[in-house]
TrEMBL record:
It comes from Mycoplasmoides gallisepticum (strain R(low / passage 15 / clone 2)). Keywords: Membrane, Transmembrane, Transmembrane helix. The chain crosses the membrane at residues 24-49, 69-95, 107-130. This is Uncharacterized protein.
Length: 143
């Protein structure tokens, strides 16, 4: 059996229009899911951070976790835009076929990987912070 170099085959796939389009659809789909997840987390945690501790004791108990999740969402949005800013700058500076760049794709996949790690960490913090709430208290915190 021959070893298959994943990076070499990925680089070759970028030269094929059909396969390159599939790569961009995959990148777009995963990035959209991450953006929606972190936008919801950022919106909810922004509200939870500003609630009073006397009226909402469950939220007050997880205040430090709320701050951590809020910061993780902000960090994701900060690193998410970097490869796309490079992509736009390279496109307008006249670099031809930047959308086929192997380096750009690897940087985008790196940010996706970091985003997935942040998402898993955020999910663990959500479970740790709010696992003891029943549905009544959870709905009450959103009102």
């Amino acid at each position: 059996m021959q070893k298959r170099n994943i990076f070499k085959s990925y680089k070759l796939d970028l030269n094929n229009d059909k396969l390159m389009r599939k790569k961009w659809y995959m990148i777009s789909g995963i990035t959209t899911v991450l953006i929606i997840f972190f936008a919801v987390i950022l919106g909810i945690m922004q509200r939870f951070v500003n609630l009073s501790g006397i009226q909402y004791p469950a939220v007050n108990n997880a205040r430090s976790l709320n701050q951590a999740m809020r910061i993780m969402a902000i960090v994701y949005f900060a690193i998410f835009f970097l490869p796309y800013l490079y992509f736009i700058a390279a496109f307008f500076s006249g670099i031809n076929q930047i959308y086929r760049s192997f380096t750009l794709h690897m940087i985008i996949w790196l940010t996706i990987f970091v985003g997935i790690l942040l998402m898993l960490t955020t999910c663990a913090l959500l479970i740790a912070g709010y696992s003891n709430l029943d549905s009544y208290n959870l709905i009450r915190n959103f009102q």
